[in-house]
Amino acid sequence: MIEAIREAHDAAMAADERVVVFGEDVGFFGGVFRCTAGLQEKYGKSRCFDAPINESGIVGTAIGMAAYGLKPVIEIQFADYVYPAYDQIVSEAARLRHRSNADFTCPLVIRMPTGGGIFGGQTHSQSPEALFTHVSGLKVVMPSNPRDAKGLLLASIADPDPVIFFEPKRLYNGPFDGHHDQPVESWKSHPLGEVPDGDDIVPLGKAAIRREGAEVTVLAYGTMVFVAEAAAEETGVDAEVIDLRSLMPLDLEAIVGSVQKTGRCVIVHEATRTSGFGAELMALVQEHCFYHLEAPVIRVTGWDTPYPHAQEWEYFPGPGRVGEALKKVMED
Questions:
Q1: What is the pLDDT of residue 316?
Q2: Is 187 helix (H, G, I), strand (E, B) or coil?
Q3: b/e per residue 238-260 (b: at least 16 CB within 10 A)
Q4: N or C end: fewer C-beta atoms under 10 angstroms in the chain?
Q5: Nearest partner of 79 among 167, 162, 149, judged by Cα
Q6: Measured distance CA(104)–CA(100) in Å, rounded
Q7: What span, in angstroms and rounded, lies between the C-alpha atoms of 288 and 290?
Q8: What is the model's pLDDT at position 178?
Q9: 32 burial class (0-12, 13-18, 19+ CB within 10 angstroms)?
Q10: Which regions of the chain are under pLDDT 50?
């Protein structure tokens, strides 16, 4: 996935000189996860450069660049660091088109590594996507594989409005196959895929069916797509796994079509449960599929607690917890 993100940057910068890339350590060092490695050397310090440790300043500067006509792609080193810039994103970037009556737009992409899996503790492992899906004027994306990472990033850079681009850091370096006392052997059969050739765009707002099934629909995104697939295989439940890919805009048609077919729904996300994005998904399923449901919708999520460093792998929804939800929804 790192290679895919790097290639998307490269393709966009080569095609349009208005695309500029900056953030903490993204220039000379190539980013803490190496997603921008080589771009400064290739395109120069005026198009790929390092910024001070000041997230509010990084985002504010990028908004000004976007209003001026550039296409900034900025990296917040960890999603946990975005909070000082939240006012800039909500009050300025998200509202610029509307408050100016479309005289100005904000073609800005804010990339953020998200979620846990690296034992980074409370300040390097959060999943704050719900804070952005709630804000009108923002688009929110989270890919689960290299093809989507490249195609969605290209689509995000081409979009005339601000896009929050979350990158699950557990997927950066390939398929996850367990950690310490949490082995998940079945995940080894789910390679993320190769980095695609070419510059094909994956459109925002379109979900993908990762596993077809007839008994229950599982809605997931990011790392949880692979967890859901593993749970379905381990339990034997004929689950249809929907990779949302784009949280805003959301592919409601794909969700409704699948749930109406299966009659059951399980929602999985890594973030905290209360007021998480799963609550919105549950409400939409209830509104649009009530008379098709054979059982209550179930959520499998992170805990309602500050991120537990020592219990990181118990905090994540794993195939075991998701499998229990699949079996329960089939029993109701």
A1: 86
A2: helix
A3: ebbbbbbbbbbebbeebbbbbbe
A4: C
A5: 167
A6: 6
A7: 6
A8: 36
A9: middle
A10: 177-189
pLDDT given at position 307: 82
pLDDT at 175: 56
Q: Which two tokens stand for residue 295?
A: 């059982």
d(CA 90, CA 197): 35
CB 217 within 8 A of CB 209: no
The structure tokens listed for 126 are 């959060």
Strand, helix or coil for residue 271: strand
| 153 three-class SS | helix
Report the catalytic residues.
Answer: 124
ω before 249 within 30° of 0 (cis)? yes
| pLDDT given at position 331 | 93
The CA distance from 307 to 215, in Å, is: 33
pLDDT, tens digit, 9 for 90 and up, residues 5-58: 999 999 999 999 999 999 999 999 999 999 999 999 999 999 999 999 999 999
- Judged by DSSP in three states, 100 sits in coil
Report strand pairing: 246-248 vs 139-141.
Answer: antiparallel
Dihedral angle over CA of 33, 36, 37, 42, nearest 10: 180
Contact status, residue 125 vs residue 312, Cβ threshold 8 Å: yes
User: What is the rounded distance in angstroms from the CA atom of residue 171 to the CA atom of residue 226?
Assistant: 10
CA–CA distance, 296 with 20 (Å, rounded to integer):
47
Question: Do 211 and 165 touch, CB atoms closer than 8 A?
Answer: no
What domains sit in the chain, N to C, each tagged with a CATH number? 2-171 (3.40.50.970), 205-331 (3.40.50.920)
Helices (H), 135-189: 146-158
> How far apart are alpha carbons 130 and 128 in whole angstroms?
6
